[in-house]
Amino acid sequence: MQNEKFITNSIDNSELTFNDFKTIVMNDYKIAYESRQASVLGRREVLTGKAKFGIFGDGKEVPQVAMAKAFKNGDWRSGYYRDQTFAFATGISTIKEFFAQLYANPTNGADPFSGGRQMNCHFATKSINEDGTWNDLTKIKNCSSDISPTGGQMARLVGLAYASKLFRNNKELDYLKHFSVNGNEVAFGTIGNASTSEGVFFEAINAAGVLQIPMAISIWDDAYGISVPAKYQTTKEDISEVLKGFQRNADQPGYEIYKVKGWDYPALCEVYEKAIEVCREEHVPVLIHVTELTQPQGHSTSGSHERYKSKDRLTWESEYDCLLKMREWMLDSAIATEEEITEVEKKAKVFVRNAQKEAWNEFLDSIKPEQKTVIDLIGGLAKHQPELAKIAAQLAATADAQRREVFSAARKAIRLSAKFDTEERTALLTWYQDQEALSFDRYNSKLHTNGIESPGKIAVIDAEYDELSKMVDGREVLNACFNENFARDQRLVAFGEDLGNIGDVNQGFAGLQARFGELRVTDTGIREMTIMGQGIGLAMRGLKPIAEIQYLDYLIFALNVLSDDLASLSYRTKGIQKAPVIVRTRGHRLEGVWHSGSPISMLLGSLRGLHLCVPRNMTQAAGMYNTLFRADEPAVVIECLNGYRLKEKLPNNIGDFTVPLGKAEVLEKGSDITVVSYGSTLRLVQEAAEELANFGISVEIVDPQTLLPFDLNKVCAASLAKTNKLLVVDEDVPGGASAYILQKVLEDQNGYFTLDGKPRTLCAKAHRPPFGSDGDYFSKPSVDDIIETIYEMMHETNPGQFPAIY
User: Residue limits of the Transketolase-like pyrimidine-binding domain (predicted)?
Assistant: First the structure.
């Protein structure tokens, strides 16, 4: 059986007999050879049309077996899509599961890594249960969910390793027994040589060197990035040469850097044992540059490497294939005979072929009952409509029908029978409607964890005030909120540029590093991608990180990490992993091109899977933080840049009151027009409403408070039913977040039917705001703009009462 493997962790060879040693080596070769056969057969399955696409780890088998020997329970992997052999050797994946993922089988348990949602070689282990509660992560070999962007795994890797440092050095975390054993866990990362050219790689390497964390990064170097050779990728064509300056010495901390040939099995085993011991014990990052690797089948199933590799290179690759070289070493060292090795290879081929067949048959078997049902139902309809018999016959003739073909046939038959109200049509329609929930679960569920600690299940507690409640600066409200929560929950940590020593550029964290220490309130370098990755990794290991990005404009530097990794994590694992990061930033109005950002539509389009909080003031922000600190889903909170020194009343229960996410609030009641806005522009709308009242115009102001989710109770639609007019005021570009709000109110909430005139949007100009107060006035909505736009809308309805201004 695939799971019946010998232990692959490091073994003291001095205690081994020759037979023990031979057994271990032969088992390693068996795993590597099985993996190669999985690659060969997997490619064939794609080229024959059974799978859509394939990408495999052929050529990297031997170093991955060696790496697996050093990987222990509690350790973490953050790798890329060539690591199948490592997954097999550690028991993270079986061969059958590998093929089930290749076929995108959504049946529960078939692809335990992604539920059929990710392409092959994208692995993950189960960190959480269906209800969102944590498993004991110290007792399993952990694998963070893979993503396809090459290099994207590096950001998260920093956080996974940094968690071990916090667990080892912050004794207040000792009670978290399910997450760490004294910080002994190593975070293993893998990356291809070409992807080391990416900025996130260099950010991560530098961050790990500064932080001195147990991060072990392996670089699989086969000298190419698809068709592009190393001379176009890397200075000196050698990444470890480039990184020599990171090597530690007696006076300066840094890395331990190792270089080893990828076909040299004994050397690989020795290097990995030594490197990981240093990494684990000393909390020193290590880099293992594995050179002279090959890629026998080319980059992927989309093409052949014979197109771009020279004959000499191809000849060299055939001679230095790591499996061939390991085989030669075993023979030369008299570890095994030709006959013994051949027998292992023969059995491996049969085993892999059987696993592939079983995975394919199970995939088809999950669909065949649906296929038969639809054929029978359409056949019944054909008694009334003979032309439908052709649809049933075509579906019956499709030997390996996939679910889309079954459903497409059903839907076509439903459409064509719309004029026939028969029992047979009702039966088909009922079947289809019953399938919708199953289809949603297979393909669309778990965008959020939706567990017992989801934000919607956090108790709503109102802010409390009395006659002694003080008026303070908005920044002091936030500071008091953070202070109370950090004292309450030891899992909370915060980090970012200028956050620690000076307490952030707007003083929300002032004095908190001195109180809670540098491990919990920490300055970072200017490295937005790995600040986000630091948060993701810490959150995946049970901590509650606040990852600060100084200005919303700078969040764009980390948007790839947030979108590719964090936002999709729950969905792409079908709810077996979570990372409740809180991304804290500030934006909207200030001064100039780079500090006035409101690119909300960019976030709305990129970050489904996160909550997007847009509080109008710091009290509302504090209430949202209180909710999120108690919840287990990721969020972005955008504080208003021009609100830190505005006066607000400090709640008596500053660390406890909560603001529910998705609950819109009516700030001012009115009868003539509904204005929906958020963040900094709300104050302008309120000011405009005062002047409009002098014209006899009554404005109802709605603050959605969060854009993801948006107004779950349909407050906007209820307001619109009363006023029949809608204006959206927004600092994003025209057609940006305002278009999103219109879609929600007019389409989702059916607000369109209560309009008596054209809905309007008032947005910023299509460019970023120029520097200075005048630049702000002429490029973003002003009080004057709001007044005149609303007045014009009233003029269109009643020109007699509201004559044209211009």
Answer: 472-646
Report the alpha-carbon distance of residue 250 to residue 456 in Å, rounded. Answer: 53
Compute CA 531 distance to the chain's CA centroid, rounded to the nearest angstrom. Answer: 14
Residues contacting 487, CB < 8 A, separation 6+: 655
Token pair 């950001």 in the structure block, residue: 155
Strand partners, 699: 673
Nearest to 751, CA basis, from 771, 773, 727: 727
Closest CA to 145 of 569, 741, 763: 569
For residues 589 and 427, give the distance between their C-alpha atoms in angstroms, rounded to a whole number.
58
Q: How far apart are CA 539 and CA 516, in angstroms?
A: 19
The predicted pLDDT at position 13 comes to: 55
DSSP count for the chain of H helices, then E strands: 27, 22
Per-residue pLDDT of 512-544, as tens digits, reads: 999 999 999 999 999 999 999 999 999 999 999
Percent helix / strand / coil, the chain, rounded to 5: 45, 10, 40
- Strand ranges inside 28-184, DSSP E: 76-78, 142-143
From the list 197, 278, 202, 262, the residue with the least C-alpha distance to 230 is 197
Phi (first) and psi of residue 220, to 5 degrees: -85, 105
Which residue out of 283, 448, 595, 611 is catalytically annotated?
Answer: 595
pLDDT in tens, 461-486: 999 999 999 999 999 999 999 999 99
Continuous segment of H or E residues that includes residue 376: helix 368-381
Joined tokens for residue 115: 């539920």
CB contact set of 769 (below 8 Å; sequence gap of 6+): 592, 593, 596, 775, 776, 779, 780
What is residue 442's three-state secondary structure? Answer: helix
Tell me which DSSP letter residue 98 carries: H
Cα distance between residue 136 and residue 127, in whole Å: 8
Res 55: pLDDT: 92
Measured CA angle at 506 (ends 501, 509), to 5 deg? 45
Q: CA 180 to CA 214: how far, in whole Å?
A: 13
Q: Is 299 a residue of the active site?
A: no
Collapsing DSSP to helix, strand or coil, 701 comes out as strand
Number of residues in the chain: 806
Over residues 244-252, mean pLDDT: 96
Q: What is the pLDDT of residues 568-592, one digit of tens each?
A: 999 999 999 999 999 999 998 777 8
pLDDT of amino acid 10: 41
CA distance 344 to 335: 13
Instruction: Specify the amino acid at residue 234.
Output: T
Whether 536 contacts 579, CB under 8 Å: yes
The C-alpha atoms of residue 287 and residue 284 are separated, in whole angstroms, by 10
Quote the distance between the C-alpha of residue 44 and its chain's center: 31
What is the C-alpha to C-alpha distance for residues 746 and 567, in angstroms, rounded to an integer? 26
